[in-house]
Amino acid sequence: xxxxxxxxxxxxxxxxxxxxxxxxxxxxxxxxxxxxxxxxxxxxxxxxxxxxxxxxxxxxxxxxxxxxxxxxxxxxxxxxxxxxxxxxxxxxxxxxxxxxxxxxxxxxxxxxxxxxxxxxxxxxxxxxxxxxxxxxxxxxxxxxxxxxxxxxxxxxxxxxxxxxxxxxxxxxxxxxxxxxxxxxxxxxxxxxxxxxxxxxxxxxxxxxxxxxxxxxxxxxxxxxxxxxxxxxxxxxxxxxxxxxxxxxxxxxxxxxxxxxxxxxxxxxxxxxxxxxxxxxxxxxxxxxxxxxxxxxxx
Length: 298
Description:
Elements: H1 10-19, H2 26-37, E1 42-46, H3 52-63, E2 67-71, H4 78-82, E3 83-85, H5 87-101, H6 109-116, E4 122-124, H7 126-133, E5 137-141, H8 148-160, E6 162-165, E7 169-172, E8 178-183, H9 191-196, E9 198-202, H10 207-217, H11 223-237, H12 248-260, H13 268-273, H14 282-290, H15 292-296
Parallel strand pairs: 1-8, 1-9, 2-5, 5-8
Antiparallel strand pairs: 3-4, 6-7
Helix pairs in contact: 1-2, 1-3, 10-11, 10-12, 11-12
C-alpha cells in the first residue's frame, strides 16, 4: 500500500500510533500525517529523550513497513550512507578467476573487471537500501551530528529520490520512502534542508501525558509508583543546570527497575540507590542526590 493512502485523517494515524504504544499529540499527528500525504520528509527537533526516534519506530509499525536507520555521527560521508564494495569477496573472485584460467594471461581483462563490480559485490548502506526497497520508513537519526557536506548530499537525495552508482547506473525509488529526520539541535541545520521538510519541535511531555505513556508502555508498574516516578522525573528536569535531563526512556526504565525491585513507594533511600537508571552524568547525579528530599516532597 502507498503510505500516502494508509490513513484517511490525522486522527486515524494518531489512533494507529497509539495502538503501537506511542502516544502522540494532535499537533504531532497532524504534521506526521501531512508528511505522508505530501511525501515530504519530517524533521523533528527537540531535547534528547523526547520520543523523536520512537516516533519513526512507531510509524514503521503502524504502516507495517520495514524501518531502515541511518545513525549520523561526526565525520560521516556519502559513501558510508550509500554503498560500498565487498572488497574481500572481490579478492576471492579474482583468485578464483586466476585459478580457473590456469595461468592463461589471455583472459578477457575487461570482463573480469566488469565482474568485480557486479551487483552481487555491492553492499547497500541505509540510504541506498531505502531507495531500492521502498516503501520503507527511513530514519535519519541525529542529523545535527553530521557536517555541512553530508547535509548537502542528503538534500540532493531527498529532492530527487535517486542516486548514481558509477559502475551500475542510477537507482531510483519507485515509491519515495517515508523519511523522518531527528535533531537534538547541537547545531543549526541549513535553511535549504529545513525548507525541504515539514517541521515539528518535540517538547518533554506534560505530567499527565507522561503518566499515560508509562501506563501504556509499562503497564506492569503500579499506578501510585508510576505517579511518584513521573513527578520525580519532572522535578529533576526542572533543574536547568543539568548536563542531561532524563528523557521519557529514563522515566520508563526507572519505573520498571523499581517494579523489578518490588518497590511500592519511592523513598529517598531507594531513589538514591537507583538514581543511575535515570541520571547518566556523575555531576548531575551528585546534584540530584543532594536534592532528593526536596524532589520527593513535591
